Amino acid sequence: MIHSSPARFALLVFTSLILLWTAMLSLPIASRTGEMTPLADALFTAVSAICVTGLSTVDMSGHWSLFGELLILAGLQIGGIGVLTLASILGLTVTRRLGLRQRLLAAGDTNPMRMGRDVSESQAVGLGEIGGLLVAVAASLVVIEVALTALITPRLMAAGYDFWHALWNGFYLAASAFTNTGFVPLPGGLEPFNTDLYLLSVLAIGVFLGAIGFPVIFALYRYITGGGWRAHKRLGLHAKLTLSTTLIFVVVGWIAIAGLEFANPATLGGQGFWETLLSSGYMSVMTRSGGLGIIDPVDMNGSTLLVMDMLMFVGGGSASTAGGIKVTTLAVLFLAAYAEARGYRDIQVFDRRIPNEVLRVSVSILIWGATIVLVATVALLQLTGRPLDIVLFEVISAFGTCGLSTGLSSEVSDPGKYILAATMWAGRVGTVTLAAAVAASSRSRLFKLPEERPIVG
Predict the structure, then answer these.
(1) Closest CA to 55 of 347, 378, 394
(2) Where are the bilayer-spanning segments (predicted)?
(3) What's the sign of the alpha-carbon dihedral 298, 299, 301, 307?
(4) 3-state secondary structure 212-233
(5) Residue 227 has what pLDDT?
(6) Which of 449, 336, 423 shows the shortest CA–CA distance to 47?
(7) Contact yes or no for 57/40 (Cβ under 8 A)
(8) Which of 3-7, 200-204, 353-357 bottoms out in mean pLDDT, i.e. has the lowest?
(9) Which of 254, 385, 394 is nearest to 312 (CA)?
(10) Which of 61-70, 101-110, 306-315 reaches the highest mean pLDDT?
(11) How far apart are CA 410 and CA 111, in angstroms?
(12) Average pLDDT of the segment spanning 430-445
């Protein structure tokens, strides 16, 4: 299966891990009360952890025992890195070498377009660089999470936590931020820190670094160590496109949230100018897939929820800990529309040409993503009877593995939990991987059908 269909192998391993975590989270030892956790709640939490989503049907700070919290932490770390990438890292550690099969597995995990097809090596990370990328993944995970923990722990100690509790909760928050999961272990959540510039800035930086993706972190490392701006050509198209698009979306979301909520007394209306800028900017970063919210979406205006729906649906960078259809996907679609409007035959950006195959995959991702969201939204509307804006927000948060919640996840019946869990699963494994897994193999035809053009537009 590894050789014939890497996508199916990835789905098999990913789903098996979810089932294993479900079984372990159901055990009495995983709950603080010593009772078995209901299957729907255990499955939902397992999917939310492995898919680095952050939605929850139980109180995360009060329901799980230390064993349960360790399981959740391990799950979100595995989900954040990527199952096949982790397997390749372990293989590299044990054997001290990386064979072609391991390189292909890791390459498919970082670029789903590789699965089941031959692709050009003129891309973000070639097969020859996979070893360096895997080292960068492991190193960035350790270094960034340790650094975030070192920054968060003193702030929690200043808030009244003793050293060991501050260290544990600091590491939990650091891992949750960098993996873009959104679980908060603190009893009062982040409410006591709603206007804390220091802690919110640290969490936002962690979420941003996780959302840009490991290939971009790897590219930035090579860029910095290779001479900085004098070696600007070393920063590839994928990194440039991801960083520029992400920054644009953060700024646009920042302005939109501040502009739509500044007069809302339930959210930003009672805050000063600088507090409004802090809260709106922080929430804009969290829509990248972070989920560590400080404002209850239920209190927001419907217009703000719609803006956040769009931001969550896009998500973060490819091969990152974030979800969504990815910023590069939307960038390619906008660039294609611009090229068509200007009459260009090719999609061009940053002095590079993007092949039409990438555009076809981008269109497929958008259509399949929108279809998954539509089906899940209709099903939950029928089950819950809640307003469209509330249900749509929860579904897109699940699909984009964001974790911002209107509270619907903890209120729905078991069938609703299964629907949201399936939405998280589909959003995390990716529509490209799903399509590659459904297809038996890459097929080529030895003939061409007659061409005829329908009228579009």
Answers:
(1) 394
(2) 42-58, 70-94, 130-154, 166-186, 198-221, 241-260, 310-337, 358-383, 418-440
(3) negative
(4) HCHHHHHHHHHHHHCCHHHHHH
(5) 55
(6) 423
(7) yes
(8) 3-7
(9) 394
(10) 306-315
(11) 34
(12) 56
Element (H, E) at 44: helix 39-50
3-class SS string, 254-284: HHHHHHHHCCCCCCCCCCCHHHHHHHHHHHH
* Interatomic CA distance for residues 161 and 39, integer angstroms: 33
- Residues 331-351: tens digit of each pLDDT: 999 999 998 888 888 888 888
What is d(CA 197, CA 215) in angstroms, rounded to the nearest whole number? 29
At 109, list the tokens.
């995990």
- Reported as a single tens digit per residue, the pLDDT across 148-174 is 999 999 999 998 889 999 999 999 999
- What are 348's strand-pairing partners? 353
CA distances from 391 to 186, 264, 387 (A): 26, 21, 6
Q: List the structure tokens of 184.
A: 């908060």
Q: Is 449 left (phi over 0), alpha (psi -120 to 50) or beta?
A: beta
Could you give phi then psi for residue 353, rounded to 5 degrees? Answer: -105, 130
Residues 328-353, buried b or exposed e (16+ Cβ, 10 A)? bbbbbbebbeebeeeeeeebebeeee
User: What is the residue type of 142?
Assistant: V
| Residue 249 β-bridge partners | none
HSE on the CB side for 320, CA within 13 Å? Answer: 38
Residue 246's alpha-carbon distances to 348, 363, 449, in angstroms, are 19, 19, 41
- The token duo for 177 is 């931020």
421-436 burial string, b = 16+ CB within 10 Å, else e? bbbbbbbbbbbbbbbb
Q: What is the tens place of the pLDDT at every residue in 378-413?
A: 999 999 989 999 999 999 999 998 989 998 988 899
Please give the share of the chain, as a percent, with pLDDT higher than 90: 39
pLDDT at 427: 86
The two three-digit tokens of residue 84, written as one number = 């096949």
Cα separation, 166 vs 95, in Å, equals: 37
Mean pLDDT of the chain: 82
Contact partners, residue 403, CB within 8 Å, separation at least 6: 48, 53, 54, 55, 181, 182, 183, 289, 290, 291, 292, 293, 397
Both tokens of 54, joined, read 């952050």
Integer angstrom CA distances of residue 170 from 32, 166, 202: 21, 6, 11
